[in-house]
Records
---
Amino acid sequence: MATNERDLAAVAANSAGHLLTLVRAGRARTRGELRELTGLSRSALLQRIDALLAAGYLRTSGVAGSTGGRPSTVLEFNDRRQLVLAADLGATHARLAVVDLAGRPLVEHVGELDIADGPEAVLRRLTADLSALVDHAGARLEELCGIGLGVPGPVEFSTGRVVQPPIMPGWHDYPIREHLEAELGRPVLVDNDANLMALGEHATLGLDDTPLILVKVATGIGAGIVIDGRVYRGVDGGAGDIGHVRIAGNDVRCTCGSVGCLAAVASGRAIARRLDGLGFPTRSSRDVVSRLHAGEPDAIRLAREAGQHVGEVLATVVCLINPAVLIIAGDLAETAFVTGVREALYARALPRATRHLRVATSELGQRGGVVGAVRMVVDELYSPAEVDRRLASVSG
Ligand SMILES: [Zn+2]
């Protein structure tokens, strides 16, 4: 029996759920490797592995090449055990997907959606679209371990509600999670879209403990921070909400009600408004991208200036967090905008803070939010504590 706190922690750390995490993270793939990593007795280890195999968390897959001893059975995380439903809501579009636990899509759908229609209308439509997509995948709702939802605003993760979102009118404090759980009958996790994109890129790049920051620039501007493999959300979900930092010398009115915000000066919507004002009809962030692709000089100049404003703010962010990777994502990520970001960032940040910094555009592009939503759901619902709880409830 465990006799003190440290013993208790050690027991918990070598629980069945912990062993599953070691296999899922690629740290061990045979019983022998797990024994070496954990120091568990042979009988304790075998009993836990058997429980994980019986409940379908692990599966066996061939034998590992032997280095002298007997060949040993390879253990794998069973990524077909359940499915995940992922939805990434932007200001004007939604991307929905049914995927397996490894993130492989069964079906994916992109459609128009106006977040400004408010929570009742948007969630009614989302529920119908998600149910249809599950049908289309030939699956049933009961096969889902959970639903991951990204939204373009600050989220209080523990409650699944958005908090004073500048570009989501009518959504403040709306119980998104409760609403969808009641409609779909499965666990729902909600997070900010930039957080999910950061998590998706981090997982795809295989960065483990390497710190990463992702800045999404589309209709609005937001950032996600991944430290030690987890999203850093701050005390109430506001971490990374850099879009409403005030830029000196600007008095442009922002959608949040304040003036001179970074988003009011440097977002896709802000560039669209300025192009429109110059006599080039431009309604959205995506229209700006079309003009950039067409090589229009005013669009390129304004995008580069906007990038410089974002780069100025990022210089502070980079000095504070000292990340290894900074990803620029969103509609404007492959344009003169990124040039502007680099110019201001390297001019303003301490050389020490940027010495090992890699500034890159997104690997996942428009799929980043969905990939991150899946990762969030699997990380949470296949966490050691959650797996141990479910194993205990089956046997007990
Ligand atoms: Zn603002």
---
Amino acid sequence: MKRLTPLGDDPAYVDRYVAIRNRKHLAVRNQLIAAHTFVEERYDELNEAIADDTLRLMAVDGRATPIKVALRACYEGATQPLRDLKKAIIAAQPKRLLKYCPMCGTTIHSTFDHYLPAVRFPEFAVHPLNLVPCCSKCNSTKDDDWLTPAGRRQYLHAFSDEIPDETFVRVTLHEEDAMLGVGARFSLVRPNGIEASTWALINSHFDRLHLLERYAELSNDEIAEVLSDCRIFIDAGGLDVRQFLGHRAKERFGIHGRNHWRAVLMQALAAHENLDSWLEGT
Ligand SMILES: [Zn+2]
């Protein structure tokens, strides 16, 4: 996982909202036009909270309540400006980064998560920093409890949380009985350089989205695929399979960050003493 690039502010975020709003039915549009100052204020507040790293202090604003249906309607229906906004958010990302969901790293993004839940913060239904491209599993697993009872954030915010450039996703490989398979167990290990608050946030993100369990479930297939690629490499005359795997892992670390589970897995395979015997298996 790597931080996503926030959408540029030309056109301004609030102008994108206005373009979407203006495509809605008259009744919705008029309600939102009457409340425009409120929405503008809230956009400023959110932009500042993200810039100052005080996102956790964003409070629900009662002024949204009477117009919540109209505000949320902005994210419903495929208006052209909404389609353009979604496309622009995706286009702002470096190539290949979104091959994997930025929240879990397991599969391609297919939807958008409202980081600040739309039920509580309907005014941010189409705010570009509140629309995180992600997979449907993450979107449905992440609940509206974005804060702990003590007011700490529970999930990493893909546009603003810088993931420390240190390895904390670890894997142990083990041979599984009877089926010549290789299994993997993932864990989080705190590196010395990570602050307690950052570490708590990373832990909570992994825990709430069940990431270690999801990686373990996927790893059998992933290992089989990697070993198959290695055999193809060897059959084609490749000599140093460990180096081949190591290079592939490194390339993925470069794109998806040091804690991308697939790359962690490849690196562990490359270094494992049993690799040669696993490659001889069928
Ligand atoms: Zn995901």
